[in-house]
Structure of MerR family transcriptional regulator:
Amino acid sequence: MRTVKEVSKLTGVSVRTLHYYDAIGLLKPTRVTEAGYRMYDDAALSRLQNILLFRELQFPLKEIKVILDSPDFNQEEAIVQQIKLLELQYKHIGELISFARAIQTKGVRTMNFEVFDTNEIEQYKTEVKVKWGHSEAYQEYKQRNASQSKCNYDRVADEMMSLFAGFGAIKQFLPADQTVQEKVGALQSYINKNFYTCNKEILKGLGEMYACDERFKKNIDRFGGEGTAEFVRQAILVYCDK
């Protein structure tokens, strides 16, 4: 068993952060002594290791908690997925470095916007989130995705972005406005039709992901204008709380 200070020294995670993880239920100490000292065993350290890996992969804390608390969570599968995502990011960073070096040697006229494409990473991250957060939905998504051609996948992705652009066009409305709520209903129906059965619980989780995951947020705001991702999240919350 290790004290919170020992865990902090071992991992580089501040004591304050460990206290915060405890407060939000992400990483509870194995036990708390009568004197109030938090103590962590190997199982807790293993969970912390998973938390840190997912954080390196830019998963929000709320989503990490959902993943790790899933009754279907499998450590062996998770590490395979983490390695895959790290490899994708490593490849992406390598391409960006090569691109930057080309600019350095050849000048700013060098053009290659494909190096900024992170669709492969985002698609894989979505699979991970859906699988552990909602295993039945993941299986349905996997079956449907296997039957889609790249051309069809691109069409669906474009149509999804058009939906977000539609949200951007009505950001001046209140999230509870009927027009906005109809847009949320259309988004849910589109996900049901093209990805998996999207109940309100899953839809609410997606709303959080749209606003909290920087990559999703950036992409959605690119199509709908700044603030669209957060607007969609708020509209979804109203829709799901009805």
